[in-house]
Amino acid sequence: MDNIRRILIIIQRSNGDVLFSNSLVNRLRENYPKAIIDLLINDDTISIGKLIPSINEIITFSYHQKEINRTGQEIRIIKKIFRKYDLSINLTASDRSVIYSIIAAKKSISAVEFDTKKSWWKKLLLKHYYFFDKNSHILVNNLKSLRFLKIHSNNSFIAIQPSNKAQKTIKNLLIERKISDFLIFHPGAQYEYKVYPKRLRHELLCYLNSLNIPIIVTGGISDIDLEIRKNLPSLKNVSNLIGETTIDEFIALAKLSRGFIGMDTLNMHIANSFGKRVFAIFGPTDLKMWSPWVNIELYNKISNTSKQTYHNVTIFQADMPCVACGRAGCNDQHDESMCLNYIDPELIYKEVENYVNTQ
Questions:
Q1: For residues 317-338, b (16+ Cβ closer than 10 Å) or e, as one string?
Q2: Which of 4, 28, 67, 85 could form a disulfide with 105 if both were Cys (CB 3.0 to 4.6 A apart)?
């Protein structure tokens, strides 16, 4: 694989998956400095995909378009990628993404399922494959492809840097609001099953308001975020920026912050990538795959306990036998997670208070 000039990376999952692919892109760029690197991602992850440096072009797949004109979309993508690359790397084990990887390049590397019934044909057609392991962190999974290229993986989480424009916008915003030292509180998430219940969220925010430090509340423009914004209590030390920053601007904000308090979201991983103090509230999400990453040694010590701290991270979970179930809510349909009702906001506050008072 010495003559690699064009590389396609396929990631058909969530924003977090795209964020963690930056480490793979970084290692590829170091080893193939002249190669053109493209991404094939879902269109609802394009905002984070655009921020990954060294990407030449982003090709998008749309689940909405799939419902309208599935055949047309597939033809468009196949024409775009068919044998256009020297190497394809697929980080998703789904049938569609594996097919894209196979047709994009003769040299294809892809994740596949452990289940032979699902993966037998993929193993036959792929140049190289590795098993996607749900008991390993997403970063570790994403970097497995490097061994086929004889590239050493140091399992480092490479931060995505904000643009100069975003940094300028955020600095001006902070000046306008006379804020210098601050904490971020991020109460929302992509799905309802990851959101801290309203009553507990407001109780925690009132506790945080008593700290002698500004609290900036962040969020996007989804229905979940805008509902939180509408009902957020008005408090002296709290600035509500929900719906007022792009993801690029959030990255700039996180880089300037003292720490992050909030749900297990893309935003949590962004703050952690800069080594910020992170207080993460987890519901049913499995820590094996999605815990805030520091290094492999600390990762191997993580367990499902109600509170644990390692390096710059403190994780809060409910003390329940079903945690963490890994389901999308109790009914596995992206609805409510009852376990989030059993995480005490005062416990979270005391950890944050201790951090603020000892700095």
A1: bbebeebbbebbbbeeeeebbe
A2: 85
Place of tokens 């939180």: 228
Length of the chain in residues, anyone? 359
Out of 3.40.50.2300, 1.10.3720.10, 3.40.50.2000, 1.10.540.10, select the CATH number for domain 6-149: 3.40.50.2000
Order across the sheet with 215-217: list the strands: 238-240, 215-217, 183-186, 259-263, 277-281, 313-316, 307-310
Tokens of 36: 């053109």
Q: Which amino acid is at 20?
A: F
Assessment of whether the complete model's pTM goes beyond 0.90:
yes
CATH of 164-357, one of 3.40.640.10, 3.20.20.80, 3.40.50.2000, 3.40.50.300: 3.40.50.2000
Q: Using an 8 Å Cβ cutoff, are 144 and 176 in contact?
A: no
From the number of C-beta atoms within 10 Å of its C-beta (0-12, 13-18, 19+), residue 179 rates as middle
State the 10-residue block means of pLDDT for the chain, 359 residues long.
Answer: 89 95 96 96 96 96 91 96 98 97 97 96 96 95 96 93 97 96 96 95 97 96 95 95 97 98 97 98 95 95 93 96 92 93 97 94
Classify residue 189 by its DSSP letter: -
- At a CB cut-off of 8 Å and minimum separation 6, what does 22 contact? 52, 53, 158, 159, 160
Residue 357 backbone dihedrals phi, psi, to 5 degrees: -80, -15
**Fold equal for 6-149 and 164-357:** yes
Peptide bond connecting 159 to the previous residue in cis, omega within 30 degrees of 0: no
Give the C-alpha separation, 264 to 259, whole Å: 14
Q: For residue 316, what is the DSSP state? A: E
Residue 14 CB-half CA count within 13 A? 11
Furthest C-alpha separation in the chain:
62
CB atoms within 10 A of CB 290: 22
DSSP designation for 243: T
Q: Which positions ≥6 away from 169 have C-beta within 8 Å?
A: 249, 252
How many other β-carbons are positioned within 10 Å of the β-carbon of residue 69?
12
Q: Which amino acid is at 176?
A: E
Domain boundaries defined on the chain? 6-149, 164-357
